Amino acid sequence: MSVRKLKPITPGQRGRVVNGNDAITTDKPEKSLLAPKKRSGGRNNSGRMTSRYIGGGHKKRYRVIDFKRDRFDAPAEVKTIEYDPNRSAFIALIQFEDGEKRYIIAQSGLKVGQKVVSAEKVQPEIGNAMPLENIPLGTIISCIELRPGQGATIARSAGAFAQLMARDGKFATIKLPSGETRMILTTCMATIGTVSNSDHQLVVSGKAGRSRWLGRRPRTRPVAMNPVDHPMGGGEGRASGGHPRSRNGIPAKGYRTRNKNKASNKYIIERRKI
């Protein structure tokens, strides 16, 4: 994977950094795994805008991803590595021996022609999925379930990974990408390896229009608003602002909003870094 800095032949190209997309092998998705994707434009069922700064953007079709990896002991061959407009990571098209095709999140280093398998016990190689109880300690993992059978919910974005630190009884201790250390049931599935496209964080769009293509509308700075619109609005000249906080008054930096009585608090060993 690599990034390219473009020559400034136009104002929009100046400073723009694009993904080299070296890992991608095709630009045509598998038609049988495409689904329509409806847009809301930030509006609810009565047509009122409830989420600001959302709307427009290029039309997309959803790629149906197999997050559960629930077809056990069936080797599958990686056919293609593809771009997915719905997520930052690349996806891989795999085909089982009986011809069934599925999309999975591509791990870094996954190659076309490679075999991947999901099983109770399997070699801890990149792309293979198995329960946490059978993964060697210290292994780098991603696409982790939080509840057995739920499907991967943790460490799914580009370059994300977690580490299996320890096991004690029916719980495994995982160090998450946020820095949080928590316990997860050992019957939960996880995939070996780091999520692909780690260079995603280095990409620079270069112009406002590229954000519009992604469906993001311009965002008004709170300090530019009036006091009636935001706690940080108002003031004469540049003497506005105050303590950083959200529109409904919740402090934005360093203030903990997690419920102290939340049931899952007992599973968190070390809180994430703020």
Task: Describe the overall structure.
With 274 residues, the chain is mostly beta strands. It has two domains: 3-201, Nucleic acid-binding proteins (OB fold (Dihydrolipoamide Acetyltransferase, E2P)); 223-274, Ribosomal protein L2, domain 3 (Irregular), CATH 4.10.950. It contains one helix and 17 strands. Strand 14 (171-175) and strand 15 form a beta hairpin. The mean pLDDT is 94.
Uncertain residue ranges: none
Number of domains: 2
Q: Give the name of the CATH architecture of the largest domain.
A: Beta Barrel
Cα separation of the termini: 30 Å
Mean pLDDT: 94
Structural class by secondary-structure content = mainly beta
CATH fold description of the largest domain:
OB fold (Dihydrolipoamide Acetyltransferase, E2P)
Level of helix content? under 10%
Put simply, the count of helices is 1
In percent, how much strand structure appears in the residues? 15-25%
Oligomer, anyone? single chain
Q: Could you describe the largest sheet, including whether it forms a barrel?
A: 7 strands, antiparallel
**Form type:** globular
Number of strands: 17
Within CATH, the superfamily of the largest domain carries the name: Nucleic acid-binding proteins
Identify the strand order in the major beta sheet. 9-16-10-13-14-15-17
Compute the CA-based radius of gyration: 22 Å
